[in-house]
Amino acid sequence: MPDPADPRDRLIVALDLGDVAAAEALVERIGDAATFYKIGYRLAYAGGLDLVPKLAARGLKVFLDLKLHDIGNTVEEGVRSIAGLGATFLTVHAYPQTMRAAVRGRGADGPKILAVTVLTSYDEADAREAGYALGVRDLVASRSAQAREAGIDGIVCSAEEAEAVRGVVGPDRLIVTPGIRPAGSDLGDQKRVMTPDQARAAGIDHIVVGRPITGAADPAEMARRIVAEMA
């Protein structure tokens, strides 16, 4: 299993904000307590794509969480365009055609491609409502196997499925999990969650934490606390 040299790299702070200036201010407040940041839909579509090379130039890592999914050519060319921004990770949805296209578009120097299996806001009832014949765990396992065959660098899944995913994808691919909440935190809209300590015990490489850090009175101290739990 990959093991980051800097334990801070195991924590990815989600910059789920709608304003680039606010995101930059939060990065400054957190300082050296974190080294890895996630930019998702909300910030990316508010000018956050321009923030990727700025953070990368400072030696920070960026997880660009765009969950791409479209016809193969569109995904391939989209990933090729994104590759020059300097992101460390980029997400796509775990559909075979999409994953193969993303791997083609990445090239030799592009970001590591992570496949999103089943969103952590989904439970069994949500999967049924969406029309899936498989339950959540079986669907995660199936998509993880397809990701392995497509040459994907890692999997995004719930911490609850991490052990099963590791058994499918092997020791050399990354497992990244959102839906991590320190003990006592509000679950928000997440349904399949773990604490940082439980995530560490499950063999997860990177955890994504948003509101418990971004909404904390002292975001830097909360980040340090979570890194300590993971270490």
UniProtKB/TrEMBL annotation:
Domain Orotidine 5'-phosphate decarboxylase, residue spans: 10-226
Name used for this protein in its record: Orotidine 5'-phosphate decarboxylase
Gene Ontology MF annotations: orotidine-5'-phosphate decarboxylase activity
Protein residues bound to substrate: 16, 38, 65-74, 120, 181, 190, 210-211
Family listed: Belongs to the OMP decarboxylase family. Type 1 subfamily.
Listed Pfam families: OMPdecase
Pathway: Pyrimidine metabolism; UMP biosynthesis via de novo pathway; UMP from orotate: step 2/2
E.C. code: 4.1.1.23
GO cellular component: cytosol
Organism per entry: Methylobacterium oxalidis
